[in-house]
Automatic annotation (TrEMBL):
InterPro entries: FBXL15_LRR, Leu-rich_rpt, Leu-rich_rpt_Cys-con_subtyp, LRR_dom_sf. SMART domains: LRR_CC (SM00367). GO terms for cellular component: SCF ubiquitin ligase complex. This is F-box/LRR-repeat protein 7. The lineage of its organism: Eukaryota, Metazoa, Ecdysozoa, Arthropoda, Chelicerata. It comes from Araneus ventricosus. Residues 97-261 form the F-box/LRR-repeat protein 15-like leucin rich repeat domain. GO terms for biological process: SCF-dependent proteasomal ubiquitin-dependent protein catabolic process. SUPFAM superfamilies: RNI-like. Pfam families: DUF7885, LRR_6. PANTHER family: F-BOX_LRR-REPEAT PROTEIN 7, PARTNER OF PAIRED, ISOFORM B-RELATED.
Amino acid sequence: MTHQILRHYVRGTDFETSPGSRDLSRAPLRKTEGCSAVTSVHSRPPSLDSNIITPNPFRLRYLDLTDCQRLDDAGLERIVRHFSQLTHLYLRRCILITDEGLKAIASYCVLLRELSVSDCVLLTDFGLYELAKLGANMRYLSVAKCDRISDAGVKQIARHCYKLRYLNVRGCEAVSDDALEVVARSCSKLRALDIGKCDITDRGLRVISHHCPNLRKLSVKSCEMITDEGIQIIAYYCRGLQQLNLQDCPISLNGYRTVKKFCKRCIIEHTNPGFN
């Protein structure tokens, strides 16, 4: 067994991973997608003192808790204390997680490389200040639709997590060109960027094109202030672009043709019937 999958676990509030479980110890990946009642993970019998931190007997690296909507900060802290060797953690739509949960992640999971907290609507810039302490280990971060996050938090992430390859701030409407400029100058190895529905203009796209020429995926979906000029600059400097989302953007056929001209292999997503 290479994957241990727990789906739609709704009757209990805990699931146990006892040290004697051979199946779990052999499974490198754990997924608990849709476990709406999961609040904590134990690496020992629950009768033991919960304040004792024991080693992670499974060397767990990957944990997906997507849609575990009853998971709170206390449960998350318990998880990361006992599985401190996590490198990939996905908490999409865990709506009770706050900045305190992110603080626990940064404190215990110092090897973390990928984190998604998309749709965790209680998170703010203070949580990103904590995550920034993970530094250059971080390669992937999604805070999509965390609408309390602004330029301040994104700037802190960019300055400290400068080896990011993937950044998703889609729907963070308080994120503007100011943050994008710091991201571009700090994270030159960025390969994928989603700034859909952010407060972005051509100025932000210009600085991205100059400092992140190896960008492969870009989404500016619903960025109403960008124009052909910004997209043309991206196309000219980021010629390795493979995927571009222009849906609900005021881009003309001229801008579309420029992308097709310079980015030969680019798949363009759009909502303009005139482009076909």
